[in-house]
Amino acid sequence: MRQVCLDTETTGLDYKSGHRIIELGCVELLDGKLTGNDLHIYFNPERDSDPDALRVHGLTTEFLSDKPLFADKADQIIEYLSGAQLIIHNAAFDMGFLNTEFSLCGKPLLDSFINGFIDSRNYARENGFASAVITLDKLYKDLVDETFDKSKDRKIHGALLDATMLAKVFIKLNSGQNDLFSEVQVEAKQEHGEAVTSGSVDLSKFDLKLVKVSEEEMKAHSEYIATLAAESKKEINW
């Protein structure tokens, strides 16, 4: 499955007040793996950023003055996003801005060419993240890098940086299962009477939880195996 973790930076908080996108960052996942096929574009919004927004992203009017308009890159963005499921933190914000930009240049809206979306804030809650405030920084620190310090590691937000952090968080929220199972190759050739073989997996790459079995559980398991052996009249090698 193709997924795209997406983030934007904008001139302000409300697209309904005429604020515009100034940066788009997209990180591609294919079957849960980072591909390196990312998309990163700065835009000239033809207006200044609000002071509060400027303090967040640091992208000045002067820096953006020679960048392309969103309309100039709309077709490229649509082509890149087409058919992908979007992963966005606080999806309503970014999707609202993107749909406004597409509408302003006469292009179709997101729903017509993407394969749905996941809001990572809701997804984190659904997967047991019970914090009252679920910021991307907190998810990254709790799930990816416990040494992460927002005040030191990133004083300025960037769309590609945030999209990359989001991709790593999303992979962790899925417990790396896609990475694990995609590396296991099983080939069955029963029609030729050949044995089923499976590829080896380097489990050292995965953060696997070790679950110890109690004496009571071992005893119950042994009794269960003994019952199966008696019923089948065969030796059970489990």
Number of helices: 10
End-to-end separation: 35 Å
User: What gross morphology would you assign?
Assistant: elongated
Q: How big is the Rg? A: 24 Å
CATH homologous superfamily designation of the largest domain: Ribonuclease H-like superfamily/Ribonuclease H
Binned strand content: 15-25%
- CATH architecture classification of the largest domain: 2-Layer Sandwich
Strands, total number = 8
| Biggest β-sheet strands, sense, barrel | 6 strands, mixed
Share in helix = 25-40%
Find the structural class using helix and strand composition: alpha/beta
Number of domains: 2
The name of the CATH topology of the largest domain is Nucleotidyltransferase, domain 5
Order of helices and strands: EEEEHHHEHEHHHHHEEH
| Average pLDDT | 83
The CATH class of the largest domain, by name, is Alpha Beta
Low-confidence stretches: 176-191, 194-201
Task: Give structural notes.
By secondary structure, this protein is α/β, with parallel strands linked by helices. The protein has 2 domains: 179 residues, Ribonuclease H-like superfamily/Ribonuclease H (Nucleotidyltransferase, domain 5, 2-Layer Sandwich), CATH 3.30.420.10; 32 residues. It is built from 10 helices and 8 strands. The strands form 2 sheets. Strands 1, 2, 3, 4, 5 and 6 form a 6-stranded mixed beta sheet that branches. The two termini are 35 Å apart. Its cofactor is Mn(2+); Mg(2+).
